[in-house]
Design a protein that fits this description.
Elements (H helix, E strand, L loop, with lengths): L21 E2 L8 E3 L22 E4 L5 E5 L4 E5 L12 E3 L26 E4 L2 E6 L4 E5 L12 E3 L24 E7 L2 E6 L4 E5 L11 E3 L23 E7 L2 E6 L4 E5 L12 E3 L24 E7 L2 E6 L4 E5 L10 E3 L23 E7 L2 E6 L4 E6 L3
Parallel strand pairs: 1-22
Antiparallel strand pairs: 2-25, 3-4, 4-5, 5-6, 7-8, 8-9, 9-10, 11-12, 12-13, 13-14, 15-16, 16-17, 17-18, 19-20, 20-21, 21-22, 23-24, 24-25
Length: 392
């Protein structure tokens, strides 16, 4: 029997919206793909040193190493140097006793060396910080970890290494609790955590001890409220499912996925509940519909942006549910993206452009990391990591 592959759906684009953008990343596609198992259309999701299952976080570490939150396998994979060949097996394993194992907390009790659906991951003070959402905590290693027995040195969100209740079992949040923290980023000694289930961003000026309370909260007016959009309408303060926050041009950018926007603070906030200055993805501070209430995207609209990165003077946004990457030179109110990757034009959307996975397509990109002119993409829906050069 002869089998052929063809595109099953070719959407019609809305009139007047087909506008090309300058390329954000190299037009030849990713220079290295990890987790693709040789580009197989159908592959096993059983754990192996070179395979992944829905990776949602990636980190290009300044020391030259690469780290991936292999989310569906409940583990973290590390490469001592960024691979130069496709499907290079990982050198380092965290969260499981060996590369052939998987399961929440390694199918055992919660400990300082286990994870439960790991997501965000970032270099922090020479070491590593990992968001461990279903243990409702963030793990911090003072040095880059070396293997499964290397326990985290600091745990935020829980009082000890063996606790795992959301908000410590309380009905409200506190400065020292978390509920499904997804994203984590760093700025010197400062650690920034998207405490997604509590609809807020927490900031530690200098975390040093397990259970240490956060110093600042955004998205809520105080540390105890955990209501969606701070218990009111969508505003310049509120959030719904924040997934990533990064320092941007001396201020802050937050991917507020549930409100289909990116919030921008021109200066780094200094008080709880500080209002943002502008938003991307919506026309004003009160709107929240995906793709600005249209089926098709535009150079302004977004659909569940999950991840952010800085590439020189460009803010990179993973417009996750539109399966594309956007680049913004201007981050003023409701600004249009200047650059685009993974779709042919700003009106296009669709997982892998409604086709099969290729070197220049994505399917629900959940994580980003940028270092120099290299961008790493957690291409979660394709169970792979893309190492991509910036467009020249």
């Amino acid at each position: 029997m002869k089998v052929s592959l063809s595109r099953s759906f070719s959407p019609q684009k809305a009139p007047g919206t087909i506008t090309p953008g300058a390329p954000l990343l190299g037009g030849q596609g990713a220079r290295v793909i990890l987790g693709s198992d040789g580009g197989s259309l159908v592959q096993a999701i059983t754990p192996a040193p070179h395979l992944m299952f829905g990776p949602r976080g990636v980190c290009l570490h300044p020391d030259g190493s690469l780290w991936v939150s292999d989310t569906g396998h409940h583990r973290v994979l590390g490469w001592k140097t960024v691979p130069t060949n496709d499907d290079t097996p990982a050198d380092i394993l965290l969260g499981q006793p060996d590369f052939g194992r998987e399961g929440r907390n390694a199918k055992g009790p919660v400990a300082a060396n286990t994870v439960n659906v790991p997501t965000g991951i970032v270099a922090f003070r020479g070491g590593l910080a990992v968001a461990d959402p279903w243990n409702h905590r963030v793990l911090i290693w003072r040095e880059t970890p070396t293997g499964p027995d290397h326990e985290a040195d600091i745990i935020l969100g829980q009082p000890d290494a063996h606790s795992a209740l959301a908000n410590l079992g309380l009905s409200h949040a506190r400065a020292d609790t978390m509920h499904w923290p997804y994203g984590v980023s760093a700025d010197g000694n400062r650690l920034i955590v998207c405490d997604t289930g509590n609809r807020r961003v927490l900031i530690w000026d200098d975390p040093q001890t397990t259970g240490q309370p956060a110093d600042l909260v955004l998205g809520q007016h105080d540390f105890t409220c955990r209501d969606e959009n701070a218990g009111g309408a969508v505003s310049d303060v509120s959030m719904r499912w924040p997934h990533m926050a990064i320092v941007w041009q001396g201020g802050l950018a937050v991917a507020d996925a549930g409100n289909n926007r990116v919030m921008i603070w021109d200066a780094f906030p200094g008080q709880n509940g500080t209002q943002c200055d502008t938003v991307l993805g919506q026309a004003d501070m009160t709107a929240c519909d995906h793709n600005m209430a249209s089926y098709y995207p535009t150079s302004q609209a977004m659909n569940m942006p999950y991840a952010l990165a800085t590439l020189g003077s460009t803010l990179v946004v993973a417009d996750t549910a539109n399966s594309r990457l956007l680049g913004f030179e201007d981050t003023g109110m409701a600004a249009h993206a200047d650059r685009l990757t993974a779709q042919p034009d700003f009106a296009a959307k669709g997982d892998n452009r409604w086709g099969i996975a290729e070197r220049d397509t994505v399917c629900w990109p959940y994580g980003l990391s940028a270092l120099g002119s290299t961008v790493a993409v957690a291409d979660s829906g394709n169970n792979r990591i893309l190492i991509w050069d910036a467009a020249t």
